[in-house]
Amino acid sequence: MNHPEPEICVYGAGSVGCYLGGRLLATGSRVSFVGRPRQRDVVLAHGLCCTDLDGARHHVAPEQLRYAVDPAIAADADIVLVTVKSDATEVAARELAAVLKPGAIVVSLQNGLRNADPLRARLGDHPVLAGMVPFNVLARGEGQFHHGSGGQLAIEDRPATATLLGVFARAGLPLAVHADIRTVQWSKLLLNLNNAINALSGLPLREELAQRDFRRCLAAAQAEALALLAAAGIPLAQLTRVRPQWLPTLLRLPDVLFRRLARQMVAIDPLARSSTWEDLEAGRRTEVDHINGEVVALAATLGRQAPVNARLVQLIRQAEAGGRRDWRAAELYRALRAGV
User: Fold this and answer.
1) Closest CA to 128 of 98, 99, 107
2) pTM above 0.90, yes or no
3) 315 — phi, psi (to 5°)?
4) How far apart, in whole angstroms, are the C-alpha atoms of residue 243 and residue 236?
């Protein structure tokens, strides 16, 4: 029997993967999931409930789900959405290379800058597209996944991109197509420099960003990155209503002015937290090397240093080992500025 709809597989179905796959499945797409046993057991018991900051709610019953631990379930996929953590990309590439059918399209929807590269190296016969998920997704337990901040999914402009556009648009997740996806990835990474700060604060994103000294921490990390990007000649894309170069200035504003302007910049609901916080809560290794660590790596290529972002990497590594995750705003700012 011929199906007009492509078969989609979400490989690495954690918070982001379950949310995206759930939205696609709830609007008529054929979707399967590959993930960890614990996540499989939860969603097969409760189904998927995908909510967002605008009040939308999409539910998929357990009997509608195909969720497996074995990547062989991806063998029939026409499109594979890779949503694993960056450290697991090499494993994903190796496992997918063993099972994908000819012509299957692979899309990297991961944090960081370089994840499409190992996928292309292993999957040379398959179209591999780099994408970007701008919004936060929080796992709330029992198969509930909440999209808690604003932003539009992005995808690089390649011949295979056209296959994805209608599917995502129907799910209410339209794709912004970009000729230069690397500028978009760096711009997203600039915003994601807050992930570590949010995790160290122990607060929801909105509550953390309401405190000026936490914002000054982020401004310091972003200003450091912006100076390095300018020195390296790397352009940026505008993902919010504010140009990336103006973000540190906005963040340093007094609370009253910031609240007034921030509402116009990006929507964040009270539930939203960073993926780094979520990883620490679950006892997982974070992606800090692929976020703040990328700024440190860029500095090294220029013969420079990035002390603020290097300190954030260090503090997150300590938190992974059981260190502090309840920093007050002023003391975290002092700690970050001490080495500058």
Assistant:
1) 107
2) yes
3) -65, -35
4) 9
